[in-house]
Amino acid sequence: MNRHLKILEFALSTLMRHKIKNLAVVLVYTFVVFTLASVLFFSQALKKEATLLFDQTPELIVQRVTAGRHGWIPLEYCRAIEKIRGVKSVTPRFWGYYYDPPTRANYTFMGADVLPSEVRSMVRGRFFTPAESWGCVIGQGIADARLLEPDDIIPVRGGDGRLYVLRVKGIFQSSSQLLTNDLVVMAVADWRKIFNIPAGAATDLVTRIPNTREIDTVARKIQERLPDARPISREQILKTYDALFDWRSGVMITAFAGCLAAFAILAFDRAAGLSADERRTVGILKAVGWEVSHILELKFWEGFCISMLCFLTGVIAAHVHVFYFGGTVFAPMLKGWSVLFPRFQLTPHAEVFLIVVVWFLSVLPYMLATIIPSWKTAITDPDLVMRG
Predict the structure, then answer these.
(1) I need a surface site. Which of 68, 77, 150, 221 has the fewest CB within 10 A?
(2) Backbone dihedral angles phi then psi of residue 318, each to the nearest 5 degrees
């Protein structure tokens, strides 16, 4: 044990003699680990949030496709779908996007005369009554962006060119930002006037199916009876989000390809061979009686100290960046295009597995790139090594 400690002590003193060179390696290495770990942590946490969110979504959503694009669906389709065996209920939804020039953000406008009790409890203020024209409830993100409070107004330009004035009756609490940050809820009649939508149409139909094993069968029957309908199951939405976050993670890592290339060049340079000074040091150690195993252990400790320092620093910094600061650097790319990002606390998920992945992608290659050239030099005659 004393011998191993002495070799470790000598390895640390060797690293300190080349502080400038090792500092450059540490900075690049740490940044690579930080980038890779941050992207993996952030994308996996967003996947988990999406999965928890969609656990409460309907089993099937039915849209109408016109000329290959999502169009308004007639309310008559509700009765046709309700007749299919296995369907519990069919409810039309009224929603759409509105671009707000002052904040340069897209809001989600939703028409609803009645809110579920669990959503109604999230409102600060009150929910409007069907008799109140142009009342609305807005998300916290819109309230912050427009500096709005209950009883303030929001001017909205409708699809017919007219200017409509909505009065804020309530604001969704901050605890519901993941669902309501950019949401504006108003009466269905007011929603129709703003978007100039006919009375017999909706955005899509929420279809409840108690037996999840019948979802594919019900979807097939809907397409047989309504050829222009497009059923979308909850599982398809989850798979789409998984693919989307994986793609965005890949784009983010590609954006930092320069840093990854620098790390690859560094590892290749280490694998190509030791410097003249390092070879001379190895030759001297062999000349004074060091064995090949001792030299390999010395180089192992040198690579281990650098790689573990960079790995731990990068992973800890990534954890703090993602789960305490919301992934500020990567949030715009991974969350999406809307400027009203909801502020919510990400929860670590499968972090041990991701740390192991980062370790294999960063530490293991560097350790191999350090030990292999050292072994080639250690088995060479000391006189040849010192002569170069």
Answers:
(1) 68
(2) -65, -40
Contacts 24+ apart (CB under 8 A), 196-202: 196/158, 196/159, 196/160, 197/72, 197/94, 198/72, 200/74, 200/75, 200/76, 201/72, 201/73, 201/74, 201/75, 202/72, 202/73, 202/75, 202/92, 202/93, 202/94
Q: Where are the domains of the chain?
A: 2-53+242-387, 60-232
Interatomic CA distance for residues 64 and 230, integer angstroms: 6
Task: Find tokens 């946490």 and name the residue.
Answer: 45
- Owner of token pair 């989000």: 241
**For residue 168, what are its two tokens?**
């804020």
Q: What is the dihedral of CA 39, 40, 46, 47, to 10 degrees?
A: 140
Give the residue ranges of DSSP H helices in 256-323: 257-272, 276-287, 292-323
Dist CA 361 CA 363 (whole Å): 6
What proportion of the chain, given as a percentage, has pLDDT over 90? 23
Residue 137 CA to residue 127 CA, distance in Å, equals: 7
Q: What is the rounded average pLDDT of the residues 275-300?
A: 70
Q: Annotate 80-126 with DSSP letters as a single string.
A: HHHTSTT--EEEEEEEEEEEETTTTEEEEEEE-SS--HHHHTTEEE-
pLDDT one-digit tens code per residue, 205-250? 999 998 888 988 999 999 999 999 999 888 888 777 767 666 666 6
Alpha-carbon span 109 to 370, nearest angstrom: 58
| Exposure b/e, 364-378, CB count within 10 A at least 16 = b | ebbbebbbebbeebb
Q: How far apart are CA 316 and CA 163, in angstroms?
A: 51
Coil, helix or strand for 200?
coil
Instruction: Mention every residue, 6+ apart, whose C-beta is less than 8 A from residue 343.
Output: 174, 177, 181, 326
CB-CB contact of 136 with 186 (8 Å): yes
Q: Report pTM.
A: 0.67
Residue 350 zone, left/alpha/beta (φ > 0; ψ -120 to 50; rest): left
